[in-house]
Amino acid sequence: MSTFFRKALGLFVVLDEEQSKQAEVPQSTSTTAATPGTPRQPQPPAPKQLSEAELSKFEKHFDQLFDQANLPGPDYFEFWKTMDTLEAHIPDEKARMKAVFASLKIQGLSKQILLDTAGKYKDIILKDKASFESAVQSKSESEIAGREASIQKMEKEREDKRQMIEKLQREIEESAAKIASLQQEIAAEKQKIENAQRGYLAACNAMVAKIDNDIQQFQQIIE
User: Fold this and answer.
1) Looking at residues 91-116, what average pLDDT do you find?
2) What is the mean pLDDT of the segment spanning 135-162?
3) What pTM does this model have?
4) Digit-coded pLDDT (tens) for 159-175
5) pLDDT of 30-54, one tens digit each?
6) Is residue 182 classed as helix, strand or coil in its secondary structure?
7) Which terminus of the chain faces fewer neighbouring Cβ atoms within 10 Å, N or C?
8) How far apart are CA 84 and CA 96, in angstroms?
9) For residue 73, is it left (φ>0), alpha (ψ between -120 and 50) or beta?
């Protein structure tokens, strides 16, 4: 199954040099020109790079999927397992395909069964794909969406706090300005009080001195 799987993947993914040698892509899939009057085959999507860990994981997954869904009697799955087994003995794929079909035909395989079971395995893969995409969507909703909501909440809280900090900063600056203004007013009032105090004491001392002088004169002049 590994050769079959990696050959299939070799059409659509980028394997490393050693893997590419093990999973040679038939030249007809990329170099054979379309016969005039026949529809052109759709081109495969751009290759995707897969790591060896991913290859092993997917290989095991599809191997189990095909084993669990294996249809009774010789079918598409057995056909390709036999193709893989005989590859070392019959390198030419077309010759090997004819030889495998001839050997399985004795066991009841026909071209129609081969085509029908290939379609069934394709449906199995598409069903598995739908389940996978559903699981991905569920995972996205439960994990990613929740985290995105948390990010939005934290961004709003951060913006609210930023605005609060700006407001507090303005209030601090306004308070500092008011303090400076009040300090100026206090200094001015202190100056006024000191001036008034000095003026009063000067006047008071002058009045006391005048009265003392008058008392002294009264004692000397008036009998």
Assistant:
1) 92
2) 88
3) 0.50
4) 999 999 999 999 999 99
5) 334 444 444 454 444 444 566 778 7
6) helix
7) C
8) 9
9) left
- Mean pLDDT score of the chain: 80
Retrieve residue 107's tokens: 């066991």
| Best CA proximity match to 8, nearest among 20, 25, 28 | 25
* CA dihedral angle for residue 43, residue 49, residue 53, residue 57, rounded to 10 degrees: -20
Structure tokens at 28: 């007809």
- Cα of first residue to Cα of last residue in the chain, in angstroms, is 148
Helix %, strand %, coil % of the chain (to 5):
75, 0, 20
Q: What is the rounded CA–CA span in Å between residue 212 and residue 223?
A: 18
* Closest among 37, 33, 29, 35 to 8, alpha carbons compared: 29
Give the domain ranges of the chain. 2-24+46-148
Question: Most distant CA pair in the chain: distance in Å?
Answer: 169
The single-letter code of the amino acid at 204 is C
